[in-house]
Automatic annotation (TrEMBL), chain A:
Membrane topology (UniProt): Multi-pass membrane protein
InterPro entries in the cross-refs: AA_ABC_transptr_permease_3TM, ArtM/GltK/GlnP/TcyL/YhdX-like, MetI-like, MetI-like_sf
GO molecular function list: transmembrane transporter activity
Pfam families in the cross-refs: BPD_transp_1
Protein name: Amino acid ABC transporter permease
Transmembrane segments: 20-45, 57-77, 97-116, 199-219
Organism: Peribacillus loiseleuriae
Automatic annotation (TrEMBL), chain B:
InterPro entries (UniProt xref): AAA+_ATPase, ABC_ATPase_HisP-typ, ABC_transporter-like_ATP-bd, ABC_transporter-like_CS, MetN_ABC_transporter-like, P-loop_NTPase
Listed GO CC annotations: plasma membrane
SMART domains cross-referenced by the UniProt entry: AAA (SM00382)
Gene3D superfamilies xrefs: P-loop containing nucleotide triphosphate hydrolases
Protein name stated in the entry: Amino acid ABC transporter ATP-binding protein
Topological type in the membrane: Peripheral membrane protein
Keywords: ATP-binding, Cell membrane, Membrane, Nucleotide-binding, Transport
UniProtKB/TrEMBL annotation, chain C:
Subcellular location: Cell membrane
Cellular component per GO, a single term: ATP-binding cassette (ABC) transporter complex
Alphabetical list of CDD domains matching this protein: TM_PBP2
InterPro entries the record matches: AA_ABC_transptr_permease_3TM, ArtM/GltK/GlnP/TcyL/YhdX-like, MetI-like, MetI-like_sf
Source species: Peribacillus loiseleuriae
GO MF annotations, alphabetized: transmembrane transporter activity
Membrane topology per record: Multi-pass membrane protein
Transmembrane segments: 20-45, 66-88, 103-122, 157-181, 201-222
Entry superkingdom: Bacteria
Name by which UniProt lists this protein: Amino acid ABC transporter permease
Sequence similarity: Belongs to the binding-protein-dependent transport system permease family.
């Protein structure tokens, strides 16, 4: 363990780390995209009429909720190529980022299915009935009446899930992905494991700022959309 | 028995009480009337230290206390003598009706559990809830909840019970049962200070009526003085507004 | 890796992973024992806007919730030994920093982390208990402490319980990061066993199963407890 604490390491490592935010963002972005799609499907299963579909969707959510990210990450990383190998498909050369995105998409989908379900259920049934009664089709009723209202309800929870995703994503370094966390590990390695504390502090600061920015952004969005709601009310 | 002098209270720049005096003797049933925002509720809350007055003095039996600087010990002693019935009942949500009534006895006064249960059951019987000892507040109607609230106050055997608009949160059809209970305990000689909008209660039960407006006592006297021969213009105006036109003929 | 699963290894390693459960649970329980009261007190400082503490709690929560747990672990794990070493040196304590059992670092990290989470949980739960409950408690002659112990805390707990459950499950899951402190918990034990013959898939299936069982059990226990606590709300539900 190193003896000295040197603040300059914090300042010097930040510019080295920042370019790798791109990878962090890429993982988060793709996971949000796929995770939300899968989340919609799961939410539809949960709110639908099929008992089996319901059981599957809820079972999926429970299992994912009980699995640590790092365990899921390694299960995907080792498990998928192994299963594929049984069918004679070689996945060993696939980029690591694919497994990271799969892992966090699966995880994000579980969270989103609950976010979407609760948002959907919070909308009064009368809204749909009223929409249909004025001649909208089912699809139109969902698209024009239910979805916009549910979206506002879901927004804060979506923001929280996104923050969770960003933070859990830091574990991707364990399978060797060079995102911002992975880069930090490289820097520490290059320093012969000295001044690790300073690098980690720099990393913490970057994540902290990122979280605050995302949080503020969602607060702004929320305000914007609920303002819209009031305008509609008064006109 | 209870004497309060020159009580002042402001919230921010808004002066709610501007020097109110109040004297209550044992066995009195005093009703405070007045438009909303006149400071009636604040006066009651200051007496029980739920709000801290900015200035004022009180004598509770043998306790002589400055309302602003009262010590924790003094506040505790006074609260042992004064019970409070809330507008929103404020029953302890996590306690049954009986537990609500005995909580103050067992924990606040160190009465034994058996004795407290006996007192508590008697109090609940008195308000007509003998069937509801083990019901939780969420299982009771508003009127029943407020009757538990009154039983909770009565069980403490306080020197005085303060009622803060006890029927205002109730649906009209539930007001009667609560007023009946209040009449009964008044008839037993309980000292009561009641803020209410129920004119019939003031007229029939009170031995003294106080009319407050804008943070001061405008007029006080017997119900007859206030309802039949109000002297102050503000009292007349208020009564005209809250009473039916031909009310005077009912008296 | 394509010869299919090694079932013997799968079964054996399951018990290896299981043997890490006591450590994971010990850390979870210690962290909760520290974080529950501390989180509650700091939540009170937030609600009552106690000048300095409120601000401190706010920043503290923001930091912990804004950074990955793994980084928090690394920061504690690389800073506390430095601090300890300088303390040992200063007071001439003849003890090697490397002899400190890593479980102590785990206690620190997870207590600090869970405290921040619970501050927020209690803050929102406290805001659902109306001020009238406290006033009613005062009015029947309860002291401040009595009012909190008998009226406010029980009601807050019921509201907070589902979130405390989530926090507990997350805490158990987070102990899987103990490997970063060389902590002999579920994940590390199974992983080490897998290192011998590269049976990673089997090892991670075992780890996965152990967490699944553990977390499902914890959720089940919380549900039972919640049902009991919630009796007084039965009619509302």
């Amino acid at each position: 363990m190193e003896k000295y604490f040197d603040v300059t390491y914090i300042a010097e490592s930040v510019p080295l780390l920042l370019p790798f935010l791109k990878v962090t963002f890429l993982v988060a972005g793709l996971s949000v995209l796929f995770g939300t799609l899968l989340g919609f499907i799961l939410a539809a299963m949960k709110t639908g009429n099929s008992k089996i579909a319901k059981k599957i969707a809820y079972g999926y959510t429970t299992i994912l909720r009980c699995t640590p990210s790092i365990v899921l990450l390694f299960l995907t990383y080792y498990g998928i190529p192994s299963i594929a190998g049984n069918f004679g498909i070689n996945l060993n050369d696939v980029d690591k980022i694919v497994f990271v995105v799969i892992t966090f998409s699966l995880q994000f989908a579980a969270a989103m299915s609950e976010v979407i379900r609760t948002a959907y259920e919070s909308i009064d049934k009368g809204q749909f009935e009223a929409a249909v009664s004025v001649g909208l089709s089912n699809a139109q009723a969902y698209r024009r009446i239910i979805f916009p209202q549910a979206f506002v309800v879901a927004l804060p929870n979506f923001g929280n899930s996104l923050l969770e995703l960003m933070k859990e994503g830091a574990l991707a370094y364990t399978i060797g992905l060079i995102d911002i966390m992975g880069k930090a590990e490289l820097i520490i390695g290059a320093n012969y494991n000295t001044h690790a504390l300073e690098i980690y502090l720099a990393l913490a600061v970057v994540y902290w700022i990122l979280s605050i920015v995302i949080e503020q952004l969602f607060l702004k969005l929320e305000k914007m959309f609920s303002k819209g709601k009031q305008v509609i009310k008064t006109t | 028995m209870l004497e309060i002098t020159n009580i002042h209270k402001s919230f921010g720049n808004n002066e709610i009480l501007k020097g109110v005096d109040l004297q209550i003797d044992k066995g009195d049933v005093v009703v405070i009337l007045g438009p909303s925002g006149s400071g009636k509720t604040t006066l009651l809350r200051c007496i029980n230290f739920l709000e801290k007055a900015d200035q004022g003095h009180a004598i509770f039996g043998d306790i002589d206390v400055n309302l602003k600087t009262a010590s924790k010990k003094q506040i505790h002693e006074i609260r042992q003598k004064v019970a409070f019935v809330f507008q929103n009942y404020n029953l302890f949500n996590n306690k049954t009706a009986l537990e609500n009534v005995t909580e103050g006895l067992i924990i606040g006064r160190k009465v034994s559990k058996d004795e407290a249960n006996e007192i508590g059951k008697k109090a609940l019987d008195k308000v007509g809830l003998a069937e509801k000892y083990n019901a939780y507040p969420s299982e009771l109607s508003g009127g029943q909840q407020q009757r538990v609230g009154i039983a909770r106050a009565v069980a403490l055997n306080p020197d005085i019970i303060l009622f803060d608009e006890p029927t205002s949160a109730l649906d009209p059809e539930l007001v009667g049962e609560v007023l009946t209970v209040m009449r009964n305990i008044a008839n037993e000689g309980t000292t009561m200070l009641v803020v209410t909008h129920e004119m019939s209660f003031a007229k029939d039960v009170a031995n003294r009526v106080i009319f407050m407006d804008a943070g001061v006592v405008v007029e006080e006297g017997t119900p007859k003085d206030i309802f039949v021969n109000p002297k102050e213009e503000r009292t007349k105006k208020f009564l005209k507004r809250v009473l039916p036109e031909d009310y005077i003929f009912y008296i | 890796m394509s010869e299919g699963l090694n079932y013997q290894f799968l079964v054996d390693t399951f018990f290896v992973a299981l043997s890490g459960v006591p450590i994971a649970l010990l850390i979870t329980i210690v962290a909760l024992l520290i974080a529950l009261p501390l989180g509650f007190l700091l939540a009170l400082t937030r609600i009552n806007r106690i000048p300095v503490l409120n601000r401190f709690a706010q920043i503290y929560v923001s930091f912990v919730r804004g950074t990955p747990v793994i980084i928090q672990i690394f920061i504690i794990y690389s800073s506390v030994p430095l601090l300890l070493a300088s303390i040992f040196e200063k007071y001439n304590i003849n003890m090697n920093v490397y002899d400190v059992n890593p479980i102590w670092y785990a206690f620190i990290v997870f207590s600090l982390n869970t405290t921040a989470i619970l501050i927020e949980v209690f803050r929102s739960a406290l805001s659902t208990v109306s001020k009238g409950q406290l006033e009613a408690a005062y009015s029947v002659g309860l002291t401040n402490v009595q009012a909190f112990r008998r009226i406010i805390i029980p009601q807050t707990l019921v509201v907070a319980l589902p979130n405390i459950c989530t926090a507990t499950v997350n805490l158990i899951k987070a102990t899987s990061l103990g490997y970063a402190m060389s902590l002999q918990e579920i994940t590390l034990r199974a992983k080490v066993a897998a290192n011998v013959g590269y049976n990673y898939v089997e090892a991670y299936i075992d780890i996965f199963l152990v967490y699944l069982i553990l977390c499902s059990l914890v959720e089940y226990i919380f549900k039972l407890y919640e049902k009991r606590l919630r009796r007084y709300k039965a009619v509302n539900a």
